[in-house]
Specification:
283 residues; alpha/beta; 8-stranded mixed barrel; globular; binds ligand C2E; binds magnesium ion; GGDEF domain-containing protein
């Protein structure tokens, strides 16, 4: 009787939890095959210099074309990949795929790849990055690796060692979503970052909120004195861009300047804008 009641209670009060768990498990199973089925792909969002006139590179942003659900956001499937350990394989794939794509671009175009904290668990990350550079032949200085503060939060000495090993390969290390984590400023002393990206929540509010503007101002000022490049993320409106130019940010990224796009579109755009001829084009 008690058992039946218990089961009944579960189904009465939390059916939506059971449904969520089932859905997540389904997605995890599907994700196992996604790489082999070539359902994962990367979009590329342009990053501009502060004038907004020069495209300096692109950030690779992952998408999953699910056979039934359609396009799934990384906000949904990256956590599943992290919890299931699939992120190691998927992350290694993204590094090669992004560098391979960048190998078709002009040499002054950088490529930025997001790393998950879960990829820092093993030494394999350094080998994965070295391998991506070797098989695609792009110069290490063209590759930016984006990490978030959470990498520095746990097992920090191990992770800082790995960051130093990555940096020794000649790539640049970027601190993403700056300002959202716990005690952000502290982390700037623990590792010599090459660039920080101010989180889009501050950019969104900087025209209306004195507090958000004050933070943007403090970060750009700090970037200048520490000689760290500062990219503003999520720039959507001309007023924001004008204000960021006034504050002395170094780079801009956001829908105002360009949305994430397909690799094929990027190739034709860079070809037009920079009169770049791909190695495959007839001369
Ligand atoms: P992120 O690295 O901070 O990437 C920036 C996100 O902001 C992207 O969302 C981008 O599409 C979005 N964004 C760019 N400009 C604007 C704008 O002007 N307005 C608004 N509203 N949004 C803008 P996306 O592509 O959905 O990616 C979300 C997050 O998923 C990323 O945040 C990153 O943390 C993670 N992610 C994406 N691709 C990968 C990947 O290959 N590996 C790992 N580990 N994480 C990834
Ligand atoms: Mg990023
Ligand atoms: Mg970000
Ligand atoms: Mg983010």
């Amino acid at each position: 009787e008690a058992k039946r009641q218990g089961k009944g209670r579960y189904e009465t009060f939390h059916p939506e939890l059971a449904e969520l768990a089932r859905e997540r498990l389904d997605l995890e199973n599907d994700l196992r095959n996604a790489l082999a089925q070539q359902e994962l792909f990367l979009l590329y969002q342009p990053i501009y210099d502060i004038s907004g006139a020069h495209n300096t590179g692109f950030e690779a942003l992952m998408r999953w074309r699910h056979p039934v659900r359609g396009i799934v956001s990384p906000l949904e499937f990256i956590p599943i990949a992290e919890n299931s350990g699939l992120i190691l394989e998927i992350g290694a794939w993204a590094l090669v795929e992004a560098c391979r794509e960048a190998s078709h671009w002009p040499d002054d175009q950088r490529i930025s790849v997001n790393l998950s904290p879960a990829q820092f668990g093993r030494q394999a990350l350094v080998e994965d990055v070295a391998n991506a550079l070797a098989v695609t032949g792009i110069h290490p200085s063209r590759l930016d690796l984006e990490i978030t503060e959470s990498i520095l939060l746990d097992a920090s000495q191990h992770n800082i060692d790995i960051l130093h090993q990555l940096k020794a390969l000649g790539v640049r290390i970027v601190l993403d979503d700056f300002g959202t984590g716990y005690s952000s400023l502290h982390y700037l002393r623990s590792f010599p970052f090459d660039r920080i990206k101010i989180d889009q929540s501050f950019i969104r509010e900087m025209c209306d909120s004195r507090e958000a503007l004050a933070i943007v101002r403090a970060v750009t000022g700090m970037g200048k004195s520490l000689e760290i490049e500062v990219t503003a993320e999520g720039v959507e409106r001309p007023e924001q861009m004008a204000l960021l130019q006034q504050e002395g940010c170094s780079h801009l990224q956001g829908f105002l300047l360009g949305r994430p796009g397909l690799a094929t579109d990027i190739l034709s755009q860079t070809a037009d804008a920079l009169e770049f001829r791909s190695p495959h084009a007839a001369s």
